[in-house]
Amino acid sequence: MSLILLLPNMIRGYISNFPETKNNAYKYFNYDNRVVQERVPRGDEKAPYTGSNQFTDQDYENLVAFAQTKIDRYLARYSMDVACDDALNLAVRSFANGRFDGKVNAGRYEVLLGALRARCGVSQKKIEK
User: Fold this and answer.
1) pLDDT higher than threshold 70 for residue 12
2) Phi then psi for 48, rounded to 5 degrees?
3) How far apart are CA 55 and CA 90, in angstroms?
4) What is the pTM for the complete model shown?
5) 109 vs 107: CA distance, rounded Å
6) Residue 32 CB contacts under 8 Å (≥ 6 apart), including other chains
7) Cα atoms in the Cβ-side hemisphere of radius 13 Å centred on 76
């Protein structure tokens, strides 16, 4: 007998690691059958502004890849942790003309920083309180 586990579409990739995705009340509500579009599209142009909830895993993957190219080699000689942190800060502010600027909260930043550190081969370390 095989067990089939059905997961909602939001639980994948980077988005599945964000604290607001892990620690939520999704299991208490059934919104899987919601109406996706409430109005008839009029053909208006899409607004240029994108909110933080409109980014996909591919957007975050592109951000981490861009941050990897921005690692300062002088900082990396002394501390790869600091170099990754600096590169991610620079990437958030400058990638795609500031598309992510002001839209990455602390929880998302930690997930993205962990992914960048994993790409650079830096071991994960927990900060104990």
Assistant:
1) no
2) -70, -20
3) 18
4) 0.67
5) 5
6) 8
7) 12
